[in-house]
Amino acid sequence: MKTKKMIMCPILAGLVAGLSIFPALSGGAEKVKKEAAVVVVSGKSVKVHYTLKVGGKVLETSIGRNPLQFTAGSRQVIPGFEKAIMGMKAGEKKSFKVNPEQGYGLEDPKAIKSVPKSQIPPDVKPKAGMILDTKGKQGQRVPVKVVEVKKDVVIINFNHPLAGKTLSYDVEVIEVK
Predict the structure, then answer these.
(1) What is the tens place of the pLDDT at every residue in 118-150?
(2) CATH number of the domain that 115 lies in?
(3) Which SS3 state, helix, strand or coil, does residue 14 take?
(4) Is 100 in the same domain as 169?
(5) How many domains are there within the chain?
(6) 60 vs 4, which has greater pLDDT?
(7) Does the predicted TM-score (pTM) go above 0.90?
(8) Is 123 within 8 Å of 129 (Cβ atoms)?
């Protein structure tokens, strides 16, 4: 009997010690859960993988490349995209649509202009449907679409190529910090 008592006492002591440690361990687990639950809010650095579709056709994806990184609330992405991911956390996936008003805007008929051929670089041979790159006011790349080529002018649509389009996104938040 002595041996049974001696064996049971250390076992009971071990269980009691384990139970007294458990609250500390579970408290630590709660802390880890809280830290992992950082959500996308204005000012947070965010990394996402995304796939952009228009009319069911994939136009762009970050899958297989580096994720898109931006600061939420800083107007680095279109408003509808930013609004849709607010409140998401790392590991969360979501599919959503962005209407033209929250994307690249409606198509503006005044943004279709006649440009003299002399203003087109001589090495560029414009054709209807061709996308050309121009520079914006801050020197940024601005894609424009050739609508029609006439004898002395080129009709160019200066609207963003995605203006007037409903955009469909599949997004996975990779990191929020």
Answers:
(1) 999 999 999 999 999 888 888 888 889 999 999
(2) 2.40.10.330
(3) helix
(4) yes
(5) 3
(6) 60
(7) no
(8) no
